[in-house]
């Protein structure tokens, strides 16, 4: 029998879902009077629920946005004016396929008794909010979950640990516990080991994408959606990149949903094609809130051809969605003769079990069909031989191996009123650290001199400059520059074989000077 089959590695897949601000009113709302933009209305029988018409292309994953924050603004339907004091941020208590329920009734927020004449704009904030996607199949539901993770060697999704509460009751008669229940769920850290072929992980680690320039874009533009499904569009100088995807009704949708203001500027967003080169500038985020993404992990029984999840316990396709993933640490490892590898440690906010009729990977069946997958040499990883390293104002040419580790020291926080003990309210970033370790052959005593130096080395002497460029190309490279660094330790051994001295050096940097990624990988924020 098919249902007796076991899950195997052949049926395992993991993809990324971008998390971004979701203008849900602009995506699913209706026009109100003469005001630009679209609006949602209150449910006729509820004071805390916004609703919209349910179609195949306006269907949400149930409870995927539970615990997320949303900003709302109320407008009157008489003159289209903002209601004074109505701009508020509320928590989403739950969501169905076509409703959102908030933790407060909107009458009290507005200070009025009857809101039947008001329309609401609603923006779900990005943390823990995977990007919605129209479904390609009627009566099914999906997310923008067809994003390729890159050359993944191993991946360990977050573990789910439930706190056990066992208590004795006042009535005796047994040495066993009288009652037990489960407390809050805690998610373990995800680990993703990749052969690095793009610089997207630097964005999620450092936190800010402050610049994007593009060259060689195609001629198609975002205001002409017909037959543009599967393509991405960007405007040089604007960091937001949009995708176009087709729904079950044959209508193309822009993802993430653009704001009303952006909707008037779509003609200036040009297609990202095979010849487009994207130059990203990353900077440090010091707010404590790092960008997040969702991780979709699917187990499927190998001989089955179905793509959608089915009902437990006899599931042939089992999908978990880990939302609110943020990078705890990133280790870039370069070793002689090998490709550059990256180990990403990520914490997650919630483990969401998809219900029946969910389409994992947006019904994609082949890795080559995933977004960001490229069949050309652009998929190749950076190699150790592609790299260069400068320290103390000079190029270190005899480095055998090294690791740059960036840590964010995230700590989980739980706040009252989250409405679900399985959700972590937030992860707050703590002390950021940069550490570079190297094994190298030395030709002079510079590293020893720097170890005894009591002052920081800064850009007046020379930055730490780490560069990886595929085949020396300027159109596919990563450049990281660090400032204000101290040589922390130098281990000079006494080798038994009397060969060359292989020295271990550890350097701690305090400041990011700049970080740039040039390539063809599309980063959606």
Molecular structure report:
With 525 residues, this protein is mainly beta. The chain has 2 domains: 1-17 and 129-216 and 276-525, no CATH class; 22-125, Elongation Factor Tu (Ef-tu), domain 3 (Beta Barrel), CATH 2.40.30. The protein contains 5 helices and 35 strands. It has helices spanning 24-28, 106-110, 200-206, 260-263, 446-452, and strands spanning 12-18, 22-23, 30-31, 38-39, 41-42, 49-51, 69-76, 88-95, 99-102, 118-124, 132-133, 142-143, 151-156, 160-167, 179-187, 190-195, 207-215, 232-234, 242-246, 252-255, 270-272, 277-284, 293-300, 317-335, 341-347, 350-353, 387-391, 394-395, 399-407, 410-413, 426-429, 433-441, 464-469, 477-491, 502-519. It has a 16-stranded antiparallel sheet that branches. The longest helix is centred in the middle third of the chain and has 7 residues, at 200-206. It is globular. The chain starts with 11 loop residues before the first strand and ends in a 6-residue tail after the last strand. The relative contact order is 0.15.
């Amino acid at each position: 029998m098919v249902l007796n089959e076991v899950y195997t590695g052949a049926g395992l897949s993991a993809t990324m879902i971008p998390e971004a601000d979701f203008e849900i009113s602009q995506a699913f709302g209706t026009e109100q009077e003469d005001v630009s933009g679209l609006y949602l209305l209150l449910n006729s029988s509820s004071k805390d629920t916004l609703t919209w018409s349910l179609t195949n292309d306006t269907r949400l994953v149930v409870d995927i946005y539970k615990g997320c924050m949303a900003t709302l603004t109320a407008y009157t339907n008489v003159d289209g004016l903002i209601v004074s004091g109505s701009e508020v941020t509320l928590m989403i208590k739950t969501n169905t396929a076509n409703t959102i329920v908030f933790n407060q009734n909107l009458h009290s927020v507005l200070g009025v008794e009857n809101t039947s004449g008001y329309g609401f704009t609603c923006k779900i904030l990005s943390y823990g909010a995977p990007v919605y996607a129209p479904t390609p199949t009627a009566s099914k539901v999906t997310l923008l979950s067809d994003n390729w993770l890159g050359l993944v060697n191993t991946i360990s999704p977050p573990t789910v640990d439930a706190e056990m509460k066992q208590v004795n009751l006042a009535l005796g008669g047994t040495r066993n516990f009288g009652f037990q229940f489960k407390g809050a769920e805690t998610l373990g850290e995800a680990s993703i080991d990749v052969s690095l072929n793009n610089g997207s992980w630097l964005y999620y680690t450092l936190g800010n994408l402050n610049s994007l320039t593009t060259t060689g874009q195609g001629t198609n533009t975002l205001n002409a959606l017909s037959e543009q499904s599967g393509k991405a569009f960007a405007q040089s100088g604007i960091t937001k990149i949009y995708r176009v995807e087709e729904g079950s009704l044959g209508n193309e949708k822009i993802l993430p949903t653009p704001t009303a203001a952006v909707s008037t500027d779509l003609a200036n967003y040009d297609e990202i094609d095979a010849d487009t080169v994207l130059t990203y500038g990353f900077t440090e985020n010091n707010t404590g809130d790092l960008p997040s993404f969702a991780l979709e992990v699917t187990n499927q029984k190998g001989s089955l051809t179905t793509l959608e999840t089915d009902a437990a316990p006899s599931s042939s396709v089992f999908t978990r969605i880990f939302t609110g993933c943020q990078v705890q640490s990133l280790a870039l490892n370069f070793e002689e003769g090998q490709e550059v590898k990256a180990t990403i440690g990520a914490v997650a906010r919630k483990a969401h079990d998809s219900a029946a009729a969910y389409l994992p990977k947006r019904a994609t069946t082949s890795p080559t069909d995933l977004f960001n997958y490229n069949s050309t040499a652009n998929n190749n990883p950076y190699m150790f031989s592609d790299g260069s390293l400068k320290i103390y104002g000079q190029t270190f040419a005899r480095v055998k191996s090294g690791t740059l580790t960036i840590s964010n020291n995230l700590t989980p926080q739980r706040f009252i009123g989250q409405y679900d003990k399985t959700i972590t309210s937030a992860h707050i970033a703590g002390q950021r650290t940069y550490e570079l370790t190297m094994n190298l052959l030395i030709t002079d005593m510079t590293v020893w001199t720097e170890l005894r130096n009591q002052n920081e080395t800064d850009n007046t002497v020379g930055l730490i400059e780490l560069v990886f460029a595929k085949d020396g190309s300027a159109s596919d490279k990563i450049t990281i520059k660090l400032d204000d660094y101290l040589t922390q330790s130098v281990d000079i051994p006494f080798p038994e074989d009397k060969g060359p001295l292989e020295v271990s050096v550890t350097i701690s940097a305090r400041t990011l000077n700049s970080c740039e990624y040039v390539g063809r990988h599309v980063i959606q924020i």
